[in-house]
Amino acid sequence: MRRVMAVVDQDAEYGKRLVSYFNEQSSIGFRATAFSELESFRRFCQSVQIEILLISESLAHDAHGLTGNAKVILLSEDGFVAGKEHRPFGAAAVFKYLPADRMSRELMKIYADDDSHTVTRVRSSQCEIIGVYSPVNRCGKTTLAITLGMVRASRGRTLLISLEEYAGVFMNISRNAEEDLSDVIYCYLQGSYSWSRLKSKVHSFGSLDYIPPVRCIEDVSQISSEDMSRLIRRIAEESGYATIILDFGSFGRRASELLESCDRIFMPVTEDPLATLKLDSFYEYLDKAEKAELKERLIKCNLPYDKEKAQDYARALISVYESGSLYDYAAGLH
Question: In which region does residue 253 sit, left (phi positive, over 0), alpha (psi from -120 to 50) or beta (all else)?
Answer without folding.
Answer: alpha
